[in-house]
Amino acid sequence: MAETNSWIKVFRRAIKVSVGTGWTVQPDRGNIRVLYGKKASGFLSINLPYKWQEDQWVEALKLIETAADTYENYKSNISLKAAFDISQKSSTKFELEWDMALENYRNSNRHTIQENTWKRKHLPVIKAIFFYVKRSKARPQNGKRLWNKVSNEYQHGKNLEKRGWAKGTTMRRHMRLAFNRFLNWCVEREDFPSYWRPPVFNKAEEEVTTEKRVGYPLTDSQIGRLVDSFAENEHAAKWQFATQLCAVYGLRPEELRYLVLKNNKTELWTTYKKSNSKINGRRLFPLFVLDIDGNPFDWCLTLQQRFAAGELLPQISKGQGADRLGKQLRDRSPKNIWLSICKEAEVEGQECTPYSFRHRYAYVAHNRINKNGTYRSPKQIADAMGHDLETHLKSYSRFNTKDLENAFDPIVDKLNNTDKKLIKN
């Protein structure tokens, strides 16, 4: 125990030597609390933004020295809290170069964090950090208070309608990880005081608890309506072509940027590779969209030939496939039909997104019988969709069970038989 507490003795001795008698420290709810005064007349005290642990007492001592000088200079005409506030603010202005820290931080990770990922998963929380640390009033003075403000109170969104990030969501987790990473950089690489380290998070409070949304598979008739709703102009034609390709080949919207022809233009491939996947591209196999009579729409049959002939697709920046396709469907000529389909999905408790074309491909692959009367295996479908079997079953296991309805009593037949008995009686 004596060895464990040796730093406490050193800390208190240093205060006595450098600050003077009447000043001391003690633990208070895990933090360092400064006391000033005498037993006879009582003590003034203040809780500091430093943990009661060995690696923080040196920096705490610096603040105590500065604040004690400030308190003495004002001849005790200000409160102890005011003296520490003045000292912290002057220290912050002198030491903390947030803008330089951010510039250095971004330069260090440009090759590991792509621009789109930076904008979606890092920049929002960094903007929130700067919103608070640049304030002249009510500015958080440590990492814990900063996170509380950023995660729960920061107003953002197009009309500032959002406040922080909801607990249990994946987005809050992304923001927390980005927050941690930046503040750790500031402390470890930019010499920020250790009280700017991010707080230790309570797993129960910060783990993701919201369920992943259920992907809605578009029906063939919905796709037919949607394709017919595009305007007749060059811009709309490019997006109509993109929509048709996503539907027939089950593409991720991002894969529209990576389409190529191989083997003397007889095979359509995508060379897209997800960052966390070992799959380097794949050959694409069609599952045609059928009309009400069960025949493929004419446009399904010529997609590969149209691509080979040089028909243009929209220009999409890297990482923007889903966002661009979603915006096109929501805001341009297919808007009314798309929103109508989205409402149909909501009635079923699901959500329609640009990935709904891909979900449709998975559903059809599991449930449409081959020409030889057999079903495709889950492994075949996973390979055709460009992910491993485990990922496929995790996302699409609900499509895998066949003929489930016939394994149970048919409700309609039972009701009809009951009606007939009632009529006879």
The SS-based structural class is: mainly alpha
- Distance separating the two termini: 91 Å
Strand content: 5-15%
Secondary-structure element string: HEEEHHHHHEEHHHHEEEHHHHHHH
Assigned CATH architecture of the largest domain: Orthogonal Bundle
Just give the CATH class of the largest domain. Answer: Mainly Alpha
Shape: elongated
CATH topology of the largest domain: hpI Integrase, Chain A
Number of continuous helical runs: 17
Number of domains: 3
Number of strands: 8
Mean pLDDT: 86
In helices, the fraction of residues equals: 40-55%
Largest sheet properties: 3 strands, antiparallel
Annotate the secondary structure layout:
Elements: H1 6-18, E1 23-28, E2 31-38, E3 42-51, H2 57-73, H3 80-95, H4 98-109, H5 115-133, H6 143-152, E4 155-156, E5 162-163, H7 170-189, H8 203-206, H9 220-228, H10 234-249, E6 259-262, E7 267-270, E8 282-283, H11 303-308, H12 321-331, H13 335-347, H14 356-367, H15 378-385, H16 389-396, H17 411-424
Antiparallel strand pairs: 1-2, 2-3, 4-5, 6-7, 7-8
Helix pairs in contact: 1-2, 2-3, 4-7, 5-6, 5-7, 10-14, 12-13, 15-16
Describe the structure in brief.
With 425 residues, the chain is mainly alpha-helical.
Q: What would you note in describing this structure?
A:
One of its GO terms (molecular function) is DNA binding. One of its GO terms (biological process) is DNA recombination. By secondary structure, this protein is mainly alpha-helical. The protein folds into three domains: 6-94, no CATH class; 98-206, no CATH class; 220-406, hpI Integrase, Chain A (Orthogonal Bundle), CATH 1.10.443. Helices cover 49% and strands 9% of the residues. It has a three-stranded antiparallel beta sheet with strand order 1-2-3. The mean pLDDT is 86.
